[in-house]
């Protein structure tokens, strides 16, 4: 049985699971608007741990925790939801112009499914599915860790909506942890687009340093440190907590 047939067989087998979980609410959807609108400049820098040595903490930077979600192309919106269908916004997210939609889809992998995965808007030129490593294991998938939009040769899946299904030949990734910032903020931190930094997340019990954090700079961004749910759980943080760039 080829991969597509295997996944579609799984859709049929698991539709009853989807129906049973119809009323289940998602956890955090992608970084909700609200907490990141605080006046972060009024937050005092925490006492620097001795093990950071002479390093300087730059920030504060709000944390945004992103749950599994899907970005859809126009073609796939129409296949999954119907001809001329338009996504319906239910709330804004922390990044300007980004929003959570009313619509959800089922994501089908080689050995499992996840129902009610939130669609985020606006539409994109290419469909992208962002999962945590835990999600990927449940689905039997092995997506690469990639920056958003870097989809060539990424993992496959099947997306199922109320009007049809899409066999996604590539587009499934685990998002590389990253910080969004404006050019002005990047200048103040002494950073530029595509730099790689380490980020300290203070916590009384589970303080963590995240290495290999990608810096993304654009005048369309708002300051935000994006983690997926696996990373956030490891550090004991939630959307609205604060983090600091470690400057050596």
What does this entry look like structurally?
With 248 residues, this protein is α/β, with parallel strands linked by helices. The protein has two domains: 3-30 and 66-175, no CATH class; 35-65 and 177-247, Barwin-like endoglucanases (Beta Barrel). Helices cover 19% and strands 38% of the residues. It has five helices and 14 strands. It has helices spanning 3-20, 74-81, 133-139, 183-189, 229-235; strands at residues 56-66, 69-73, 89-92, 99-108, 113-124, 128-130, 145-146, 155-160, 165-175, 178-181, 196-201, 208-217, 224-228, 242-247. The strands form two sheets. Strands 1-13-10-12-11-14 form a six-stranded mixed beta barrel. The longest helix is centred in the N-terminal third of the chain and has 18 residues, at 3-20. The radius of gyration is 19 Å and the shape is elongated. Mean pLDDT is 87; it is low at 16-28.
